[in-house]
Write a structure and sequence with these properties.
With 117 residues, the protein is mostly helical. 72% of the residues lie in helices and 0% in strands. The chain has one domain (12-106). It is elongated.
Length: 117
C-alpha cells in the first residue's frame, strides 16, 4: 500500500493509472459534448442545401478530430467533405452525414479508432 495521502489505499501505479484514466475520460466527455453544436450546424446547413457550408464545417470537424486523436470521427467528417466536392451529390452528402452522426454517438474511450488513453 502507498503512504501517499492522495491515494487512499492504492499502490502508486494503480493510483497513477486511475488518475490518468479519469483525466482521459473528462477529455473525451468534453470533446463529445462539444460535437453537438457542430453537428447541429451541419444539419442546419444541409436543410438549407448550403453545400459549401456543409463542406466547410465537415472539413473543420475532420481537422479538429484528427488533431484530437479521434481517427474514426475524422475519417467520417472527411467523407462528408469529400461528398460535397462531387457535383449534384445531395444524396451522398446526406448519407455521409448520417454516418457521421452515428460515429459521433459511438466515439469515446472504447472507440478503436480513437487514440485517447
Amino acid at each position: 500500500m502507498s503512504s501517499d495521502p492522495n491515494s487512499p489505499g492504492l499502490s502508486p501505479n494503480i493510483h497513477q493509472a486511475a488518475t490518468r484514466l479519469a483525466a482521459n475520460h473528462a477529455r473525451v466527455v468534453q470533446a463529445v459534448e462539444g460535437l453537438a453544436p457542430e453537428i447541429d450546424a451541419l444539419v442546419a446547413a444541409t436543410v438549407r442545401h448550403d453545400w459549401n457550408e456543409v463542406g466547410r464545417l465537415s472539413w473543420h470537424m475532420a481537422v479538429n478530430s484528427r488533431s484530437g486523436g479521434y481517427r474514426a470521427l475524422s475519417a467520417m467528417a472527411q467523407k462528408v467533405y469529400d461528398e460535397t466536392t462531387k457535383p449534384t451529390n445531395e444524396l451522398g452528402i446526406r448519407r455521409s452525414l448520417i454516418r457521421l452522426i452515428g460515429t459521433c454517438g459511438r466515439t469515446g474511450p472504447s472507440d478503436p479508432g480513437s487514440e485517447v488513453g
